[in-house]
Specification:
Length: 139
Amino acid sequence: MSSKRILILNGPNLNLIGKRNPEVYGTETFEEYYVQLTSEFKGEELVYFQSNVEGELINEIQEFDGDGIILNAGGFTHSSVAIRDAIEAVKTPVIEVHISNITAREEFRHTSLISPVCEGCVFGFGLVSYRLALGYFLL
């Protein structure tokens, strides 16, 4: 079986995982979690990119050559038509991921502009949400 190339793409403020709102996002940094994922899935090519800049996220979506994208667009989930359009324009399947249960949070977080153009959504399981999305691509 050939290995898969998967992009994990994190949006704004997700560089603060482990520091910001630990009651929501936990105390482990994403970099620590990413080391665990790459160790657990050694046969796969996992690529990680994080940016607070909308255009950089769009560039990554458009330029990625691989089997799937796991996207936590952060606050852009609820506001970025441009990211939605980028997802819709590419052939690479995208799974939307969130660490928290966005439907149990503030009202403005209940609407995702990107969900309708994603293959699926995983949210509310902490950092494990990424592993669950990765599992989909590796089935």
